[in-house]
Amino acid sequence: MTAYRYRALNNEGKLVKGVLEGDSERQVRTQLRGRSLRPVEVSQATGATGKTEGLRLPLITPRVGVAELALVTRQLATLVQSNLPLDECLQAAAEQSRKPRTKGLLLQVRSRVAEGHTLAYAMGEFPLVFSEMYRAMVNAGEHAGYLGPVLEQLADYTEQRQYTGQKLKMAMIYPFILMGVAVAVVVALMVFVVPELVGIFAHTSRELPTLTVMLIAASDFFRDYGLWVFAGLVVAAIVFKRLLRNPVRRKRWHQLLLRIPGISRVVIAVDTARFASTLSILMASGVPLLESLRIAGQVLTNLVLRDESAEVAERVQEGSSLHRALGQSGHFPPMMIHMVASGETSGELETMLERSATNQERELEMTLGTVMSLFEPLMVVVMGVMVLTIVLAILLPIFDLNTMVR
Q1: Could you give the CA distance from residue 142 to residue 156 in angstroms, rounded to a whole number?
Q2: Does the structure show a pLDDT above 70 at 184?
Q3: What confidence score (pLDDT) does residue 66 get?
Q4: Cystine design at 109: which of 50, 122, 176, 261 (Cβ 3.0–4.6 Å)?
Q5: 0.70 exceeded by the pTM?
Q6: Which among 131, 147, 139 is positioned nearest to 297, based on CA atoms?
Q7: How many CA atoms, within 13 angstroms, populate the side-chain half-sphere of residue 32?
């Protein structure tokens, strides 16, 4: 059976949408009429472009957010550990979903499982939703007979990833709002307030102070070219983003980021923590070390670090220990290398990798907290200096006029 999206009119003439399973569009339309709905449009939840070795290629891949994926994974883990058949677990998870895209996705996966395919194979049709790491863990859990606990681990991992991402976003919201307000206030003063105030000096023949002349010039510039400057910045950002689509340019940019003090520390902490956490959860799920290293390397966003992770996998394949291979890369944190060495010696590599990821995430939170605590008062000081400069530029000619009157 295949999942179909539909749009239909109810008895009140209102348009309703949803997802149904059926063998064909005609059968779905019959089901809709049995529910007193008049079909308007019925189409597959994911269109097919053809078949390759029995695998239907989706034309439109549904996008599922991290929060939604974490919720679905947690539901599947709970249902699977209740010893329900897998297709019933997927059906129940689909019925609990409120989003049509997620529901259609789960029904498509269920239809493939009902045909006799494994869950990992069915999820492979949606690589943008279920990452390679996700599918590898599911595959290992199915073969080992521990799908429920593996899904539980995946749910924990996905929820932790969502929590970390939200924490970073929340930490950045206030500084960006503060910066935006500061820029908006200064631009408003320069465009609307300053021209009105300096107009009183237009009839005087005395030479204005240098600071006032500079303020008038800046005000004229913002008033005449402000929109052009803003448009230029937007265009520059778009062009820069398009240039970074080229892997060579993107790698050079990533190399530059790793050379900038402060920024490099944050980039390395974020990526290596994700690498250690992914490697830990893969190995704990029974995925072989070399395969785990290859998959964990794909979660790294920095291309330089991703290449180094591939070199680490090659050294391990040649017989080197993991901590020695990481140490030769030059970018992985020393604390992580020491903890990996301890894990290899004690036989608790997965646990030490998890602890290493936790330590790096805590260190990153502390670093960002320190930076943000310094940034906020710094922005207030900068804002005060700029307003003070504007006020002085306006008051200096007034003082000169008072002196001339005396």
Answers
A1: 18
A2: yes
A3: 78
A4: 122
A5: no
A6: 131
A7: 28
